[in-house]
Structures are given as C-alpha cells and as structure tokens.
Amino acid sequence: MDRFSRSRRTLSAVHGWLSLAAVITLLCLTLGFSPHASAQTAPKVHRKVIQMVEPEYPTILKNGHFEGQVRLDATVLPNGSVTKVEVRGGNPMLSQYAQQAVMKWKYAPGPDKTVEEVVFVFNPGSR
Fold first, then answer.
1. CB–CB of 98/52 below 8 Å?
2. Which end of the chain is more exposed for a tag (fewer CB within 10 A), N or C?
C-alpha cells in the first residue's frame, strides 16, 4: 500500500467522523430548540381564600405522632365554591381530615373554574 492510499483512507475516516459529529450536533440542536420548549407560559394566578376551615387533628393521631405534610388540589368553580379535592401526597390518615376541611372553603369569585394547590402541615407540637 503506498503512502497516497493510506493518507486517502485516513482522510476518509476523519471525514466520516466529522460528518457523524455534525449530524449528532444538528439533532441535539433541533431537539433542544423546539418551539414548544421555548414558549413562555403565563404565571398561575392563585385565587384568594375568603373562608378557611382548619382541618381536624384528632388527639389520638397527635399522641400517636402521626405528622407530616398533606398536599391537595382543590377544584374551584367561578363562584368560589370547592367542588372536588384530590390528594396529591401525604399521610392517608391525615389527608381525609384535610380533604373534609378544604371542601368547606370558599374562594374569591373568578372568571373560570380553577385548580388550587393547598398544603397542610400536621405537627403535634404546633396545634
């Protein structure tokens, strides 16, 4: 094999690797800059709670040191009443009391139905 053939094969291999690198770079750029990913969303506006009811925290659960955070999503109608409360996380023993309380809440009226996040912290020392 002469020197010219070996140089040509090396250049061909380098050209192949550069082409592959260029294709991978373009693919990454295309996926990374999709219009959906770069679109800005408006910040969520939270509705004001007009009437709030604290959840019951039974003594037996306090004494048993059942504690922690309960996260809920409350579906609120335009008139401000809560129609549904879904548990997003937390102790099931405590979440039932949080759900019952939020169902009694009243929010400020708004133009549309919204879903509001509610978080309760159950701590035997603070209640």
1. no
2. N
